[in-house]
Amino acid sequence: MHRSCLFAAAIVVCVLGNPLSRAAEGPYFVTYTHQLEEQGNLEIATRSVTAQPSDGNRFLGSAVEFEYGVLGWWTTEVYLDGQLTGGESSLFTGYRWENRFRPTKREHWINPVLYFEFENINGADKALLEVVGHDGEANSSEPNDSARLEKKREIEGKLLLGSNWRGWNFSENFIVEKNVGHQPWEFGYAAGVSRPLSLRAKPSVCNLCAENFRLGVEAYGGLGDTSSLNLHDTSHYIAPDIEWSLANGIDLKISPSIGLSASSLPFFFRFGVSYEISQFARRLRK
């Protein structure tokens, strides 16, 4: 798996090599908050996951993200997915185009956001950005040579709900997904809660200040599909999240995830890096 490590390191170096501003995402990997990207800002990030299925080879799945605030109520994002599997191959598995729209301008007790995504990926994709339907460990065990032949052109919608209260963030996501072919509609969920270690920021610049750390926990899983709308053979996970915001503007986060059902991967580990370029469009015009 040394090739997996080199691939992950190369992505991190690409992101860290161009520091310009601070990213503003929370600690979650699967759950979305109601916060959108500030208009004109571009965030570049990676989300990676590594695991070893019980009857398969260890893999590293990764998604490189480019998130842009088009308007105050509209954020768009492109994902480029790839993976490495030990003893098999490395490959580009496709792309995703995501859009989030916030119908209300002011902050409320519960803030809704509408999410729409188009995915053009293949069956070897292992980014694990969400869990729907009857997704499970078996999906991560199929060899790349056969899995890559399966084409997945899917549409996905989410209702994102979020609340902030005394430094706490509460986020709930309801997911529906469908292959544009004849497969059934699939359903899933994600929910998280998080809080910084301190709400008081020190006047001096530091890396290890308590306010630079945000801790959280999220739960996510599948809810079956229109052919079998139940929890039979579905996967569910619980995952603590840790985010560390460095003084130079780089955000690092990690999340060990534990499977809660027989269909789940028993354990996998997520890690990510993000950075935000403020007023990207204005910089291009100069």
SSE arrangement, N to C: HEEEEEHEEEEEEEH
| C-alpha termini separation | 44 Å
Strand order of the largest sheet: 1-2-3-4-5-6-7-8-9-10-11-12
Q: Give the amount of beta strand, in percent.
A: over 45%
Tally the helices.
Answer: 3
Instruction: Profile the largest sheet.
Output: 12 strands, antiparallel, barrel
Output the CATH class name. Answer: Mainly Beta
What is the name of the CATH architecture?
Answer: Beta Barrel
- Overall morphology: globular
Query: Spans of 5+ residues with little confidence (pLDDT < 50)?
Result: 1-23
> Which percent bin holds the helix content?
under 10%
Oligomer: single chain
Describe the structure.
It is a single chain. The protein has a single domain, classed as monomeric porin ompg (Porin). Helices cover 9% and strands 49% of the residues. It is built from 3 helices and 12 strands, in the order αβββββαβββββββα. It has a 12-stranded antiparallel beta barrel.
Summary, kept brief:
The protein has 286 residues and is mainly β.
Essential attributes:
286 residues, mainly beta, Porin, 12-stranded antiparallel beta barrel, 3 helices
Write the layout of secondary structure elements.
Layout: H1 2-16, E1 42-51, E2 59-71, E3 74-85, E4 90-101, E5 111-122, H2 144-147, E6 151-165, E7 168-179, E8 186-196, E9 213-225, E10 236-245, E11 251-259, E12 267-277, H3 280-285
Antiparallel strand pairs: 1-2, 1-12, 2-3, 3-4, 4-5, 5-6, 6-7, 7-8, 8-9, 9-10, 10-11, 11-12
